[in-house]
Amino acid sequence: HLIGKYHNPPAKVAVMYSGRTDRLCGFPWEGFPGDDFGLPGALWVRMQIENRIPFPRDIILDNDFQRGNADKYRVIIDGGAVIMEEATVGRIEEWVRKGGIFVSAVPTGRHTPEVKDAWSFARLSGYRINAGGRGGKLSAVPGQQIFTGDAWTNAVNAHGAPLQQLAADCRTLLVWHDGTPAAGMRKVGNGYVITVPTNVKGMLDDVLRWSGNYTERLRAPGCFPVQYASNNGLYRIFVLWADKVKSPTNTSFVIPGIAAPAVMRNIVTGTLISGVPAQNAMTFNDIAVDRNDIHAYLAPRGEITCAPLDWFNLQRDWWQGT
After folding, report:
1. Where are the beta strands (DSSP E) in the chain?
2. Which of the 8 DSSP states describes residue 305?
């Protein structure tokens, strides 16, 4: 019913892969212990980043800055560019100066292809990530505006890497128990470079909220919910995958936001289900699911005048590389 008829909605947030890092430090080298490349754990961090930030979000490569493909994103999170050429640092700087927000969640630019521990990206971020990890208590610096949720009322347990501040115009956001910087930011032109090499659930959500690019998550206990867009621009498509359900049960599907649909149509059966409004969201109760079930629903997008242009843009983007 859906094959070839839907796509991910446009995203303002992207996770950046590094093709060069993957080629030089990928299989079989990532299986070796030690910190010679700074890569052990970086690939794992990338998967965590992808899983923890809400949809919609895209995947790009580091050379997309050269192609101009990065220009449409507001926030780009580095997912493993441990090796980076100086030219790439320069292109990222140009993008940031125009208003982009670049988030370094790994030892970004620790090496160049020719020089180990060159730290070429540090001239842009203003921080060098010290080798080796540490665990302990992490606290938010008073007055900073990013990590302000209830989770930061008290110190939290964390594991990550301490930072060495290299530029005077950097602002520390989080500190370890001994006062060593754990996360920081630097304003560059009209944008920011944020360095957060620590593994705390919800940190990237805080960054996205601060930037104004956070999308509230769909919720369905026991299921993995995702939203897509129909290729004709007329419908939103909501899919539930019962990946955590072990036996037949009922779940509730919560769609947040004032634009949440009140009624959806089951794509397979054609039956309509109605939602119940509550707390700026619409809840669809008593959806019967079994282990690994997939349910898909159509909801009118309500922007029919935009559909022709959206369809045209979709086709253009698909075929621009041919």
Report:
1. 6-7, 13-17, 58-61, 75-78, 101-104, 127-129, 134-140, 156-160, 163-165, 170-176, 181-188, 191-195, 224-230, 235-241, 249-256, 263-266, 272-274, 276-277, 281-289, 294-300
2. G
Report how far residue 109's alpha carbon sits from residue 91's, in angstroms, rounded to the nearest whole number: 13
Token reading at 142: 């008073």
Residue pair 104/195 in contact by the 8 Å Cβ criterion? yes
Q: Which amino acid, residue 19?
A: G
Global pTM value: 0.85
28: preceding bond cis by omega (within 30 degrees) = yes
Residue 84 near residue 107 (C-beta atoms within 8 A): no
Asked whether 166 and 128 are in contact (CB, 8 A), the reply is yes
CA–CA separation, 103 and 79 (whole Å): 9
Q: What whole-number distance in Å separates Cα of residue 229 and Cα of residue 6?
A: 5
Distance CA 39, CA 52 (A): 20
Q: Would you state the pLDDT for residue 95?
A: 97
Over the chain (322 residues), what is each successive 10-residue block's mean pLDDT? 81 88 70 51 65 82 90 91 91 96 88 88 91 77 88 80 92 91 95 85 87 90 92 89 95 92 94 92 95 94 77 71 48
Residue 250, token pair as written in the block: 């009922």
Bridge-based pairing of strands 263-266 and 294-300 is antiparallel
At 206, phi and psi to the nearest 5?
-60, -40
What the block records as the tokens of 240 is: 């539930």
* DSSP letters for 230-255: ETTSSEEEEEEE-SS--SSEEEEEEE
| C-alpha span between 213 and 75 (Å, rounded) | 8
Alpha-carbon distances, residue 226 vs 200, 223, 255, 283 (angstroms) = 24, 10, 10, 15
